[in-house]
Structure formats: structure tokens, C-alpha cells
Design goal:
- The protein has 10 helices and 13 strands.
- About 30% of the residues lie in helices and about 25% in strands.
- The protein has a 9-stranded mixed beta sheet with strand order 1-12-13-11-10-4-9-8-7, sandwiched between helices. A 4-stranded antiparallel beta sheet has the order 3-2-5-6.
Length: about 350
Amino acid sequence: MNVLTNQCLTASVIPAASRALVEVTDLRKSFAVGRGLFGRPRATLEAVSGVSLQVFPGEIVGLVGESGSGKTTLGRCVLRLVEPTAGTVRFDGVDLMSLTARELRAFRKHMQIIFQDPYDSINERMRIGDLVGEALTIHRLATGEARRGRIIELLEQVGLRAEFADRYPHTLSGGQRQRVGIARALAGGPQFLVADEPVSALDLSVQAQILNLLLDIRDRLNVGMLFISHDLSVVRFIADRVLVMYLGKIVESAPADALYQNAAHPYTQALLSAAPITGEGRPRQRIRLQGDLPSPVNPPTGCVFRTRCPKATSHCAAVEPPLRAIGPHHYAACHYPTASH
């Protein structure tokens, strides 16, 4: 088997000649936990531990894992909304780590985030038009009538009528609020979006509408997207490629169809066994993981999943498994992965 060491994971659906829009290499984020004598941290929590990935133009990469696995921290580190401890992030060839605060602010129009909660992420005191038009003002993209016209265009792009520009958020439903959040993210004309659990706070009927809207945006604007979710059914619907994260690390990566049909890592298999079954396929036997997610302050030695893994051996405790190629564009960080087709 080929060992993948600090390389970025590439989808089979992307032509080999394509240039990555976003390239993340060995990204790490640590937090000091507690304070002891002389203000020194008592411990260090490593929320993101050596993650590498790529996102191509027009590609939706799904990022899944349990709560506490580090998904949201990773997404915000990629945008430098949270400062990484180490590693590099390149956007269209530009090293984001080298940008000053002023340069980064100007760069924000190229990469935006869609937040999880459409209630907490919107200022209730501002009209919808002003919320959507903030980026136009900050980046000096339009003024006067041109600004008003662009705001209306953005609202219509996300399925809202022009009259919504003069309304306040309290008059909107959750789905309408999330459409406003998407319009606001699109205002600067970004090439890359981080969608952080964008449908988890919405009713099921509304979720499908928002997911279809995001797919339409990808198709029309050729936007690359990192789509974060704990819901594997949602990710299967929208993602071209899926990364599975556990305790700050990527433990499996594959094109979406390959992952859902032939998951190789025991953790991915357990997640899929608990997901609702849709479409064709035999009923899955539920795999119940023992214990809770270990603390990232004191992660297990060797394989981080070994304390909950039914396949774990003494070798797993002694040696951390690297991401290995087990099939075409399919990688798993496991000493004993299921054989790929």
C-alpha cells in the first residue's frame, strides 16, 4: 500500500491538471486549557492535529464527524477566523498565513462562511438589505443605486423577493434567515465558502431547499465549498468527496460514492451504520461504539480511535497509522482497513 504523508487528498472527479483553489497542509490548532502557577497553561488541547486537504473550484468537500471532533475549528482555521497554531493554508496560490490583518480583511471577499444558526448570526436591528449590503460597502464594490440593485440581485439569487430588502429579521422564518445568510456570504463574489452545519437548525423540508440552493450556487458560480456536517445523509446528498474527522485528525477520505458504498475505516463504518438508510442497499447492521470520544487534552497513544475500535490490537496502541491509499483516491488511517474494491 502507498503511504500518504502530509499530502493533500484529491478527488477522482477533479481533472489531474486542475489547480487546487484551497490547499491546506499539516494544519494544527492548539488551545491552552486552564491556568496554573505564574499563569502557565495546565494542559494543551489539540483541536486540529496535522490536517491536510484540498478543495478545487466547483467542488464540494464534505467534512463529517462527531461533535468535538474538530470540524468547526478546522473550517474557521482555513479562513483564519481562528488563527492556526501551525501549518499552511493557500488560497489560489496565496499563502494566507503571510497576510497582515489589513491584507486579510481585503482578501475576505474571496472566501466566506455560512454559519450554522440563522438566528444568532444575523443582527436583528438591521434591515435585510443592509445586512446583505455590508460587504458591498466594506469592499467598496457598489454604492447608491448600483448597491441597491446588487442587493436585490443577491436576494433573488437565493430565492427571496426584492421586498425582503426592507424587512427586519424577526419577520423571517428560519429558512428565509439562512437564505439571507447565504446572500450575505455571496455579496463579495467569493470563490470559496465554508458552510458550517448550514441546515442542522432547520426543519427537514427546509433543509432540502437550502441544500438544493447551495448546489445551484456551486453550479452557477463554480464556487468551491467545504461543507461541515454531522449528518451523513446530508453530506451524501451534496458532497463530491468526503473527509471523516476524528479527534482532530482525518481518518478517511474518498469520493462520496466510494465512501458510502465501501467505507474502510472502522469509525466511518460505525457512523454509516447509525445513519438513516435511503435509496437502494441492504439494511446495515448497527455498529455500537463503546465509550465516549476521548479528551483531546489527553488523546490515546498510537491510533486515536483504538480505545473504541473493535479491531484494535497492541500494535494500534504503539504505532499511529498514516493515511494509506487503499483504492483509487480512497485513503484510510487504519492498520487493518477493510479491503477496497
